[in-house]
Amino acid sequence: MELAQKMPNRVKGFIMVITGSALWGLSGTAAQILFQEKHITAEWLVMVRMIISGIGLLIVSALKGFKPQSIWADKKQRIHLLTFGIIGMLGVQYTYFASIATGNAATATLLQYLAPVYIVLYTILKEKTKPSKEVWLAVLLALIGTFLLITNGSIEGLQVSFVSIIWGVLSGIALAFYTLSSAQLLKKWHSMVVVGWGMLIGGTSMTLITFPATVSNIVWGIDTWLLILFVVFFGTLLAFWLFVESIRHLSPTESSLLSSVEPLSAVIASIVFLNVTFGLFQAIGGLCIILTVFVLSLKKETAKSNFAVFRKKK
Fold it and tell me: Is residue 45 included in any domain, yes or no?
């Protein structure tokens, strides 16, 4: 009886996390079209996406009764929140979109997906513990996967630009920093409040570099607006809400593992809509990178909680 009653909720959770993750992946492909065909800069899109999404998440959190303004009453958290928003959130968003702008969404998403490896390695160094067999296997998979992804099995040339690879690696490192730096905030405040303020702070900071007026070269049209709306609302607000809601019906680890749909959707969308060539060895490399999360999920609960936070990035 209990199992029958729980099943619908678990199915709902599965649908939510898979849909949200797919939207995250598709938003990367939509961003690539905006960069390559509509001449929108990564800086401008990051600024607009973060400000609008941040405001949207804060409104939703207020409607749910989380009182987002109260976080500023905690003096100890103010500097932490500002650091998280400017270095963590803005760092993740900008490096990810810069990697897409100089390469493609599929590679950028997969390189960012290496973040759990960086998190575990950092934790091992900080706590001075001996790496487990799972960690060694994950690192090996990550190295092999990255090599195959960027070379397609040949050392004669890179399949994506070196600049894009650097941005992608930095994106994974930034995501690891984002995850670790947000852990303390998430212990006291709801993820919608933390991410909402982080996006708004990061997006506002971006205005110091990029202004709405610097859009003279953009190819405006209905399709341009639709793509921007998709990135902001479906690829950010709705995707994040679906993931957070899925945790009510699934364990954080299950949500984290199922969110591997994100890089898969980015790869498929890039191939279908952008005619991005993805060789056999690149596909194997991407699979190796995705497997790192599955391998690391076998570790203790402390590590698993890190992956749950890691997936709340977008």
Answer: yes
pTM of the model: 0.84
> In 3D, which of 16, 11, 27, 7 has the Cα closest to residue 266?
27
Residue 20 lies in a domain: yes
pLDDT digits (tens), the chain, 314 positions: 444 444 467 778 788 888 888 898 899 999 999 999 999 999 999 999 999 999 999 999 999 999 899 989 888 888 889 999 999 899 999 999 999 999 999 899 889 988 888 888 888 888 888 878 888 888 888 888 888 888 877 766 667 888 999 999 999 999 888 888 887 888 888 888 999 999 999 999 998 877 655 566 788 899 999 999 999 999 888 888 887 777 677 765 666 667 778 888 888 888 888 888 778 888 888 888 888 877 877 654 444 444 444 444 55
Which string of b and e fits 206-244 if b means at least 16 CB within 10 Å?
beeebeeeeeeeeeeeeebeebbebbbbbbbbbbbbbbb
**Number of folded domains that form the chain:** 1
Question: How far is 171 from 118, CA to CA, in rounded Å?
Answer: 11
What value, to the nearest 5°, has the Cα angle with vertex 97 and ends 91 and 100? 140
CA-angle at 299, arms to 295 and 305, nearest 5°: 105
What is the 8-class DSSP label of residue 41?
Answer: -
8 A C-beta contact, residue 40 and residue 34: yes
Long-range contacts of the stretch 130-138 (C-beta < 8 A, 24+): 132/299, 134/295, 134/296, 134/298, 134/299, 135/296, 135/299, 137/295, 138/292, 138/295, 138/296
Instruction: For residue 234, give its domain range.
Output: 11-310
Closest to 270 in 3D by CA, of 38, 161, 262, 46? 262
Q: Is residue 5 part of a domain?
A: no
DSSP 9-30: HHHHHHHHHHHHHHHHHHHHHH
Q: Is 137 part of a structural domain of the chain?
A: yes
